[in-house]
Design goal:
Blueprint: H1 11-24, H2 28-35, E1 51-55, E2 70-74, H3 75-81, H4 86-98
Antiparallel strand pairs: 1-2
């Protein structure tokens, strides 16, 4: 897997974005997404209380805590995705399907 770019993000910036994410978690739009009980990545039905908040573009890679960059994910997908960008995640999934 090739990493196309690395972004240096300060600890302070990450802390600021995590605080924004905590605030977004309190909003109705997040509750609506989670109430559907579906993981954004694998599409599996998951009890809403078991879904986690994931940044499509990770904070460590320059992502922001915005509605367009935050999705509900099952713990398994969130743990596997970690710091991957969407294209890197897709490559990872394709590799798993081949193996």
């Amino acid at each position: 897997m090739d990493i196309f770019f690395l972004t240096t993000v300060s600890d302070e910036e990450i802390k600021k974005e995590k605080q924004k994410a905590r605030e977004l978690k309190k909003k109705q739009w997040w509750n609506t997404l989670v109430s559907k009980g579906v993981c954004y990545y694998c599409g599996k039905k998951v009890p809403p209380g078991e879904l986690t908040m994931d940044h499509i573009v990770p904070l460590s890679r320059g992502g922001k805590s915005t509605k367009g960059n935050i999705v509900p994910a099952c713990k398994e997908c969130n743990n596997k995705k970690k710091y991957l960008l969407p294209i890197e995640w897709e490559e990872y999934i394709q590799k798993l399907k081949k193996d």
